[in-house]
UniProtKB/TrEMBL annotation:
PANTHER family per UniProt: 3-PHENYLPROPIONATE_CINNAMIC ACID DIOXYGENASE FERREDOXIN SUBUNIT, FERREDOXIN-RELATED
Residues annotated as domain Rieske: 5-100
Claim: Iron-sulfur is one of the keywords in the record: yes
CDD domains, alphabetized: Rieske_RO_ferredoxin (cd03528)
Keywords noted in UniProt: 2Fe-2S, Dioxygenase, Iron, Iron-sulfur, Metal-binding, Oxidoreductase
Pfam name, any one: Rieske
Name the UniProt record assigns to this protein: Biphenyl 2,3-dioxygenase, ferredoxin component
Lineage of producing organism: Bacteria, Bacillati, Actinomycetota, Actinomycetes, Kitasatosporales
InterPro entries named among the record's database cross-references: Rieske_2Fe-2S, Rieske_2Fe-2S_sf
Gene Ontology molecular function, alphabetical: 2 iron, 2 sulfur cluster binding; dioxygenase activity; metal ion binding; monooxygenase activity; oxidoreductase activity, acting on paired donors, with incorporation or reduction of molecular oxygen
Taxonomic superkingdom: Bacteria
Gene: bphA3
PROSITE patterns recorded: RIESKE
Amino acid sequence: MSSYVKVCTLAELEEDTPKRVELGDTPVSVVRTEGEVFAVYDICSHANVSLSEGEVEDCQIECWLHGSRFDLRTGKPSGLPATRPVPVYPVKIDGDDVLVSLTQES
Ligand code: FES
């Protein structure tokens, strides 16, 4: 069973500017882009770097350290040096509230 937790409001999310939130002990990067909101695990799969400090483009979030880009829909890296995906989490919008569940979609 998944449980959704409110992490912020839509108004707090600037387009293409990741917002780091904590769900319990789990850091999550919440991104509003292309009319949708996505949530991915905030730590790069290559090293201990916060993805929310990177840039968003073409529905991908870029790790600022070595430049791997992760698809916000699937968590998969599109290029080296990262080879493993980051977890992605389902998002629900309820009015102005953004809710995230730590239950992974895949
Ligand atoms: S730490 Fe993210 S690509 Fe190296």
